[in-house]
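Can't attach files on this board, so I'm pasting raw text. These are the components:
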Amino acid sequence: MSAAITYKAGKQPHPREHRLIFRNIDREGFNPSIECFVANGGYEMLKKAVGMERQAIIDEVKKSGLRGRGGAGFPTGVKWGFIPPTNTKPVYLICNADESEPGTFKDRYILHQDPHQLIEGMVIACFAVKATLAYIYVREEFPEAAIILEKALAEARANNFLGKNILGTGYDLDIFVHRGAGAYICGEETGLIESLEGKRPYPRIKPPYFPAALGLYMCPTIVNNVESLCHVKHILEMGGEEYAKLGTPNNTGTRILCVSGDVQKPGYFEVQVGKVTMGEVINDLCGGLKPGRKLKAIIPGGSSAKVLRADEVFKLRDGRELGIMDIPMDFDTMAACGSMAGSGGVIIMDDSRSMTWVINNLNNFYAHESCGQCTPCREGSLWMKKISDRIVAGEASPSDVAELERVANNIEGKTICAFGEACSWPTQSFVKKFREEMIGDTKPDLEQAVVNPETMLAAAGLR
Amino acid sequence: MALEVPAALEAKIDEVITHYPVSKRSAVLPLLHLMQHEYRYITDDAVNWVAAKLGLQPIQVLEVVTFYPGFRQSAPGKFHIRVCRTLSCAMAGSYELMESLCKAADIDRSHVDHHHPIAVSADGKYSIEFAECLASCGFGPVCMVEDDFHESVKPEAAAELLKQYQ
Ligand SMILES: Cc1cc2nc3c(=O)[nH]c(=O)nc-3n(C[C@H](O)[C@H](O)[C@H](O)COP(=O)(O)O)c2cc1C
Ligand code: SF4
Ligand code: FES
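---
Top answer:
Structure tokens for the assembled complex are below.
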């Protein structure tokens, strides 16, 4: 099969790439039809899976060490094992195709170009966890993907890979496409579930609402990212242990990095986790920085990840000291460097960028996207936007930078869902690492402005 | 005034409801999408119709409409444009793209605010709004015109882009 794969002109994978999930992306002569997929060995792993014990599939996924590619990096096999063993309710599975973390653009290619890879992975996953109904939650801004997926699902049904009595096993499953409506919070798994129930996507509090126990319609529900579900098929193909040899220990397999911002050739690259460094991403995969420019900062795992400054030295627990370019692109090292690998979205900023402007752009995003349920997040995200608006406009006093940080500190850890962290981490890290620059964008004379003493007294009373 | 929903649309709606065998309420979003596709925006009549169809209170539908940026409560232009404003696209020039699209389409965005994000051209042909990250950050600035996706749209190419939509 793999003998004669050629890619479209200008879209050949970089030699450093290791393509499993993206094997068929930008491939010459490949199309989203089931004929093409089956001619390339598609659905063979489903046939294998339905002949296996369900627990054996879950065990292979556990052995593979696969960690979720949606953001949190939680081990997929372990998550599947969280369905209560005594459960008698129906089980559901949802594919999270909301792809809305700024900087992330990978799932879109699978949905548009290789939908059957996802469907095969989903049916295997559903079979393993005994789900009888599943949904693909696709963000509204992928209208074409929704059409392609509907067609692919109909093809899979017509070929008995889906529907009643799949491949003669007596197993019934249906999968439907559900379209979102333009809200980032629908990517958060419990917000997604509320949205799928036809409500405002207000995230649920955990505990008790861990989806694997109390999810869609209060039944056990597995929520996995598109890329995670695609890996399942390859894990069965290779065997969990073989798969785990890809990547590095505890950071196994391949993952798709999405690089945007100030590099010569931004794009998507599937690499073995931890086998390339940040420097190799920038200089090899992306052709380096723009001419004459110096690296200033990197957001390594989607906009919610803490920013890294170009001149930082990261001291790891094992004694290693890493410069920014030496960081291997894996979950654990990125966390040890104080940030996260998150969704794989890497945003590169060179010395032409104002960090005040950058954090203001992100604060606008989070203020717009907070669902509004929790006061710290709803009010705090808006205040972070307003204060950074003021700094960008040159109308802030130097103490506003500390105020910005204070607001962020009062959100983190005090909210229903992880959006609270997602919106406070950028501000906390930008202020911490670029404080001088941000203070430089303020007006010192505002600090000395004469203030009406009565106002001061009134304000003191409010404290 | 009750809404007259064409038979073909209602058939489609009835089919979509079958995708949610556990709870009809789950069909709120897909039904609103079909309504917006048919009528270009969500009218009060459409809210009431969807509520009646799914056995819900109108407020249960309206609260969904008002939450999601993807649902509009006022008429857009013949061609609705969404420009990504989030970081990677902004670095690639999306605010400049917004400006040049507005110029090319003769749209005044001065009255736009959080509650009224959409601006319509004087002739009603185009409407425009900023969107958050459209998941193509490596190829910014990106925009959508109706359901079409456009990548790496240089601000200078705005007028050229609009020519495709007459
Ligand atoms: C604010 C917020 C936004 C999220 N957006 C997405 C998203 O767009 N896509 C996604 O797959 N996961 C997203 N997640 C993570 C999901 O909640 C969930 O962890 C993930 O879908 C689980 O899949 P995985 O285990 O395969 O990674 C988001 C989480 C938060 C807190
Ligand atoms: S943290 Fe923010 S997004 Fe999450 S539930 Fe609270 S208000 Fe909503
Ligand atoms: S920032 Fe514009 S597509 Fe992601």
